[in-house]
Design a protein that fits this description.
The complex is a heterodimer of chains A (405) and B (126). Among the domains of chain A are: 71 residues, RNA polymerase sigma factor, region 2, helix turn helix motif (Rna Polymerase Sigma Factor, Chain: A); 121 residues, no CATH class. Chain A is 65% helix and 1% strand. Chain A is built from 18 helices and two strands. A two-stranded parallel sheet of chain A has the order 1-2. In chain A, α9 packs antiparallel against α10 and α14 packs antiparallel against α15. The longest helix of chain A is centred in the first third of the chain and has 23 residues. Chain A is elongated and about 75 Å long. With 126 residues, chain B is α+β, with helices and mostly antiparallel strands. Chain B has one domain: Alpha-Beta Plaits, CATH 3.30.70. Chain B is 26% helix and 33% strand. In chain B, the strands form two sheets. A four-stranded antiparallel β-sheet of chain B has the order 2-5-1-6. In chain B, strands 3-4 form a two-stranded antiparallel ribbon. The longest helix of chain B is centred in the N-terminal third of the chain and has 17 residues. Classes of the chains: A mainly alpha (405), B alpha+beta (126). At the A-B interface, loops of A face α3 of B.
Chain lengths: 405, 126
């Protein structure tokens, strides 16, 4: 009996892409060649799996991709190489078992010698299996620009000798921090897409989920890793309720909390409880705790805003950030009233890193409206409309402007 | 294995301002660095300040007047001084042969450069 294997291949692409690619990189020692071989293996699966999907699709794909890689190597053995081969250790340096190719690929993509933009783009391409066009759209650049960024990053990895390896214990804390920042950026970019018609980029949120789970499986004792997975779960638990039937943005205050994913919330809360006990306090644990306070409130009016302000104070004391300060000011606006929120916000209006940041103008507009300064509220909201490139967010702001009359 | 040039970029005015005792202390730190990593270091040097530099700039750079496309007899321009006035200038270098960039960066972290920092550049293997 023959079946149409397209669904199984798509499913394997979603689940196995990163592991198959990572195992193939070890053979090719060349990121581009590995990508080609893996793509060909998936194409081969479309016909080969007509007679039945293998019991372990990932193993089948890895074998197929590696076979192609060995053929390509034999062909290339005589040809001149433009770039040196990737530095891959011959023996497993990790004392606890076989080399962890998937983790090595992640740490290679997130190497500090690459720019922050390149790290996240490479991670989405090589571990997330996203196309160049999809990544370009997520970061407001053209497809050729993103293609050039990916090519430049791969070239630097090869030419500068960025190793394909899980860092040793001495380097690990610093290197893990870089990886966590990349996953956090994938989460925030997916949560509210910076551009386009949809509010949420489901592909990015799914990848943030996978990456956070991968890290949790490899670093079960790390409180930042636990905090980041909790943040992903507690944020993602609201995914279905953030967009209304008409495609419009539904604010936290108006979301149907009975439709929040309680499984994700329970798992996230348990992770937060554990992560918060770590000393010194960890940034992602506290950020996840903020999300947990929201998740625990039965209604918006029950939200413990004083607790949220306190958690933001903990973050700001150790890791000052204008964006966190803005979130804190909004929380103050609920905990102590809009006048207090405005005062907290005023301290941020000269912050150069928030210039051109639409959320500052939007938050100001909302607080000004609540204190009855409608003319200034209108100006702030008009500014916010100009600064957002997401259609769904712009729609919401336009609605608020109309409501001001 | 790869070869990496570790370039020391430091504020020359700081070097000019420090006394002999501190200069000797920094040089001693370099001595200790070289001793600790003699197995991977392939060379190095300490440069005179940029005020001693002379630039040779031909049409096309490097005084390469014979290269294709240049008018016959057009000579390279020799001028005093570095290309650009920058606060931090190249003051020295090490050449190291190590397995990968992580090893090169680990080495670079130990290079004494109290008045600036270092840049790590892979060498092309031809």
């Amino acid at each position: 009996m023959t079946v149409d294997p397209a669904g199984a291949v798509a499913d394997a692409h979603r689940r196995e892409w990163a592991a198959v690619l990572a195992a193939t990189v070890r053979v090719t020692r060349d990121l581009d060649l590995a990508e080609e071989c893996v793509q060909e293996a998936y194409a081969q699966a479309l016909t080969a799996w007509r007679d039945g999907v293998p019991a372990r699709p990932g193993a089948w794909l890895t074998t197929a991709a590696r076979r192609r890689a060995l053929d390509a190597h034999r062909r290339a053995a005589v040809a001149e190489r433009a770039l040196p081969l990737l530095v891959v250790d011959d023996v497993a340096p990790e004392p606890w078992g076989p080399p962890d190719d998937l983790l090595a690929l992640l740490f290679t993509c997130c190497h500090p010698a690459l720019t922050a933009e390149a790290r996240v783009a490479l991670t989405l391409r090589l571990l997330g299996g996203l196309s160049t066009a999809e990544i370009a759209r997520a970061f407001l650049v053209s497809e050729p620009t993103m293609a050039a960024r990916l090519t430049r990053a791969k070239k630097k990895i090869a030419a500068a000798g960025v190793p394909f390896r899980v860092p040793g214990p001495a380097e690990m804390p610093r290197r893990l921090g870089t990886v966590l920042a990349v996953v956090h950026l994938v989460l925030t970019t997916g949560h509210t897409a910076p551009t386009g018609a949809g509010l949420v980029r489901h592909d990015l949120l799914d990848r943030a989920h996978d990456l956070a789970r991968l890290l949790r499986s490899r670093f079960p004792g790390d409180a930042d890793v636990a905090g980041l997975l909790a943040l992903v779960l507690l944020t993602d638990a609201r995914r279905a309720t953030r967009v209304g039937a008409d495609g419009g943005l539904v604010l936290l205050a108006d979301q149907d909390r009975s439709r929040w994913d309680t499984g994700m919330i329970d798992e996230g809360r348990a992770l937060v409880r554990g992560a918060l006990t770590a000393r010194p306090v960890r940034r992602y644990a506290v950020l996840a705790a903020v999300a947990a306070v929201h998740a625990e409130a039965p209604t918006f009016d029950d939200t413990d805003w004083t607790e949220i302000v306190g958690l933001y104070d903990v973050v700001l004391a150790r890791w000052p950030s204008p964006v966190v300060a803005l979130n804190r000011a909004v929380a103050v606006g609920f905990a102590e009233g809009p006048a207090a929120g405005l005062a907290a916000l005023d301290a941020l209006t000269d912050e150069p890193r928030l210039a051109g940041y639409g959320y500052l103008a939007a938050a100001r507009g909302e607080l000004l409206r609540r204190v009855g300064r409608h003319r200034e509220a209108r100006e702030a909201l008009e500014e916010a409309v100009l600064l957002t490139a997401n259609d769904v967010e712009r729609e919401l702001l336009a609605g608020r402007l109309d409501a001001l009359g | 294995m790869g070869r990496y040039l570790i370039l020391l970029y430091e504020d020359e005015s700081c070097w000019a301002a420090v006394g002999q005792q501190e200069t000797e202390a920094i040089l001693a730190a370099h001595g200790r660095f070289r001793e600790a990593h003699g197995d991977v270091l392939r060379g190095g040097g300490w440069l005179h300040p940029t005020a001693t530099a002379t630039c040779v700039r031909g049409p096309g750079g490097g005084g390469n007047a014979d290269a294709e496309g240049f008018a016959a007899g057009e000579d390279a321009l020799v001028t005093d001084g570095p290309y650009a006035e920058t606060k931090e200038a190249l003051g020295g270098f090490y050449l190291a042969e190590v397995p990968d960039l992580d090893s090169a960066l680990a080495l670079a972290r130990e290079v004494p450069a109290p008045f600036g920092g270092v840049e790590v550049r892979p060498l092309r293997e031809t």
